[in-house]
Predict the 3D structure of the following.
Amino acid sequence: MSNQFEGQPYYKIGYVFAPNKEQTVIQPSLITKAIEQGIGLIRIDPDKPLTEQGPFDCIMHKLYGPDWTQQLQQFSSRNPNVRIIDPPESIERLHNRDSMLEVVSRLKIELNKEKVSVPNQAVVSETELLTRDMAIEELKLRFPLIAKPLEANGSDKSHQMYLIFDNEGLEVLEAPILLQEFVNHGGIIFKVYVAGSSVKCVKRKSLPDISEEKMKSLKGFLPFSQISSNSVDADEEVDLEKTEMPREGFVVELSRALREALGLNLFNFDLIRDAGERDGYLVIDINYLPGYVKLPGYETLLMDFFLNVAKSKAVEEVTSGDELNESVCLQ
């Protein structure tokens, strides 16, 4: 494919990640593919002031905290034409597992037969509540439950999750914590990667189904790291290859609606199919700028997005030039 930017300046995308996260997106294969398309991926040094770096046409970032947010604000005020992907205030919503899913119930989306919802869930803010026998009844939840840290900031602690089978299992937890009803989903999770209008869905093995009969023998809790088909006595091994994927049009439309509602371009979300309802789906988690390298051929997904961003910038410049010429003619 010929370089459509040949003879023109590179479209420069500055990127910055936490040191241990950069390799989950920026790989030599992506950098090479970008260069072939006339796009320069330029590493931003987080230890130097952002206003002293560049020039950039666009900034892609996954750093958090007030200092970085202030740097972005200062940079944007001096460089209003540089696109920031994505706004820190929009990303912030995904750092709280309670608020991240609120948007799903408010989606304006037209579907054929599919239904989209989220699991029943509740936030427990005081650890003492977890030791009360009536806690679950008061929260109007049913076992089994998935216990997730309220903060979803990418830290090791934010990934410490448990499958809870009874009141005794709750006692291992510390508030604040999110309790989410476990929904049988055939042991399969669909991970949907979004990069602007580009969408890719893949299927992965997940937690096995738990029948009411099995629940009678399951006690306490299990950390996610220890859960297997044997640990919950799964009836049969999941056949990943034979599992039907969600309808493509449904996934694309849901991704579009989430993108617009969240005000974000780079994210993925976890989708499960309710085993008790053929066309019922649940969104159970949303992550900002995930590890795209886990997706086969991820370079193409991101490159399509980068090219669309570059093209939109070119269109804006042409439009601005036309408006300028028109104003000159009218004088």
